[in-house]
Amino acid sequence: MDLLNTLVDKGLRRELPTREEALAVLATSDDDVMDVVAAAGKVRRHWFGRRVKLNYLVNLKSGLCPEDCSYCSQRLGSTAGILKYTWLKPDEASQAAAAGLAGGAKRVCLVASGRGPTDRDVDRVSDTIKAIKEQNEGVEVCACLGLLSDGQAERLREAGADAYNHNLNTSESTYGDITTTHTYADRVDTVTKAHAAGLSACSGLIAGMGETDEDLVDVVYSLCELDPDSVPVNFLIPVEGTPLAKEWNLTPQRCLRILAMVRFVCPDVEVRIAGGREVHLRTMQPLALHLANSIFLGDYLTTEGQAGKADLEMIADAGFEVEGAEQVTLPGHRATAGGGCGSHEGGGCGSQESAGCGAHEGSGCGSHEGGVCGSVPAAAAAPAAAASAGEARTDLVAVRRRGAGTDLAPNA
Question: What is the rounded CA–CA span in Å between residue 318 and residue 335?
Fold first, then answer.
């Protein structure tokens, strides 16, 4: 297919595809999906080999968010039966992080629900960052706290934070349909603040909220302009008790095409499969590793993920390897450039870089996530067609009842 050959050549040169080419990837048929994966996989292997970076989420403060993000189980007015608790103490958060690190995670993502942190909240998170770094040499820490005020990104950086996550989620033209309590411009401003403070910027999207192909391409090209170091790709989990509980718009093939499009547009950037992979990719999860070079280990903020052991087995069985703490995630030209905005000329989202919490899923203004099914067998057993029944699928989503904020051991 001439389109795929062209996109591979551009990806290896870090050349930005045209919008028409990106749209054409999303428009390919299910019959061609393996060809699409194989082509995007060449670009992924060129820049990242067969390494998979593991990230681990710690939900510092769960639920009771004043924002009305339609996808979020922690939103204002949510009736989802999620865990609700106030700030974890630094030692509690450090203990939760240790479980993920012991399971092979390289980065810990500290997330808190809410519109954005107060200065006192920044102090709390700073103490937590210091506690984690003191007890775990070489660990990367990303904060995901919502909208930032002036000076807060700098304070997090001084405390030892390596990255900051704040997702754009969807296109600017449709953002008002998803959230009304803050704007798309507010999100852009926070990513810009993180960049300016020297933090590795992480910003991504949520697919499956009823958006068009044009919306998906719009948000990915907007991310290119912000030049984040990592782009988490989240697949909406329609959590019962949220406005989008009946939105089941994704198939495994659709998810693979979306990931491939992001890889072609962002060739040398850390592309992370975030919330929703277990529910929507199901038994095709291993194929997605040929497109993305980063995933979350274990559970998400408010919902359960695949067992950590199963994640590691999946990576090994697919012929990939877990990225070690001593390995640099980004290609040399991006790593040495520091990941700052405009760090190189080439193009694409690939023109800049790296990781961040990127978690999709439910928390705070900016962090979405959605939730995922409690186990691969349960998700895999569910017929894909059933997901389009127009009803909430409580059988595919298990609310997190372990780990941070509970007395039970975490899944890592």
Answer: 27
Catalytic position from the list 14, 75, 202, 255:
202
Would you call 349 a catalytic residue per the annotation? Answer: no
What 328-333 contacts at long range (C-beta under 8 Å, 24+ apart), as own/partner pairs, is 329/48, 329/51, 329/53, 329/106, 329/270, 329/293, 329/294, 329/354, 329/355, 330/229, 330/268, 330/269, 330/270, 330/354, 331/47, 331/48, 331/268, 333/268
Per-residue pLDDT of 353-405, as tens digits, reads 333 344 444 444 444 444 333 333 333 334 444 444 455 566 778 878 888 88
Q: Indicate if 109 belongs to the active site.
A: yes
Mean pLDDT of 8-37: 98
- Specify whether 255 is catalytic: no
**CA-wise closest residue to 289 among 332, 321, 326, 253:** 321
Q: Which of 44, 51, 69, 334 is catalytic?
A: 69
pLDDT digits (tens, 9 = 90+) for 3-20: 999 999 999 999 999 999
Q: Is 272 a catalytic residue?
A: yes
Question: What would the pLDDT profile of 193-249 be if each residue is shown by its tens digit?
Answer: 999 999 999 999 999 999 999 999 999 999 999 999 999 999 998 888 888 888 999
Instruction: Note if 72 is an active site residue.
Output: yes
The pLDDT value recorded for residue 390 is 53
Asked about 357 being catalytic, the answer comes back as: no
Residues 6+ apart with CB under 8 A from 258: 26, 207, 216, 233
**Catalytic residue check, 142:** yes
As a whole number of angstroms, the distance between CA 40 and CA 315 comes to 18
- pTM value? 0.89
The answer to whether the beta carbons of residues 370 and 230 sit under 8 Å apart is no
Q: Bigger pLDDT: 178 or 346? A: 178
The H or E element containing residue 95 is helix 90-102
What dihedral do alpha carbons 328, 331, 333, 337 form, nearest 10°? -50
